[in-house]
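User: Could you walk me through two proteins back to back? I'd like the raw sequence and the structure tokens for each, with a short line separating them so I can tell where one ends and the next begins.

Assistant: Of course. Protein one, sequence then structure:
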Amino acid sequence: MTWLLWAIATSDLTLMALGLVLVAALVIGFAPLLDRFPVIGAYVPLARLVALLLLFVIGLCVGHRLADESAALAQARTDLAFKDLELDAQKRSADVAAKLRADAEAKAGEADKKVSDYEAELAKRPENDACALDGGDVDRLRGIAK
């Protein structure tokens, strides 16, 4: 809830209104010869006090606004740096994934070629001997699977 108070107190409209009242208080309080007028003369000391208080309040509000904007800017910079870090990590992950995919495709191509060669060799065997697999054939199939 305090953020709402500070948002209103540091808004442009509030600061302009305070500035306008400050100018009026400065004119009434510190302009020469205005204290000689009976209508305004009674308000000169009050106007000087109001002017000094408004200087303090405006300084406080502007200082808070600058600090708040500075903190928001620092947070935005931190968020941007974190997003850049995440983006770099994602790019590296994508590069690693592409490399692993290329390696897997190359291994699959090699295995496909080995299977094709093995099929061609089995086709060259005599018809009645094509289904008779020996230990060498089993080892060769295991080698293809790796």
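----
Protein two, same layout:
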Amino acid sequence: MHTLTGKLDVRLEDEATLRRLMAFYHYSTRSLAAAATDELARIHRASGAEGAPLTLSKSTVGNLTNGTYRTCRFEYGIAIERVLRQTPGLLFTPKVSRIEVDARQLTAA
């Protein structure tokens, strides 16, 4: 039996805009990743969620800026937009992906 589920990601509208904003606010790939990770930790604390907060790697930021990645996690998009002082939805737009899961794999454990 297969079930369909959705996954919410965000799609980067234009990597050139991301690079220009990084340059304007004097962020390198590494410093943007660190600032976005700090923002993810703030979001995690504010939500009262348990467990460790998400972290954004510099390789993910690098792949977004050079066009290798066009999508990323919803939480990463929020954090990057907040760090770069942009209104939500300017750099990233929501994208729902359909995922098909084999129910036998879920119950096999």
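Residues 14-92 form one domain.

Let me know if you want the two compared in more detail.
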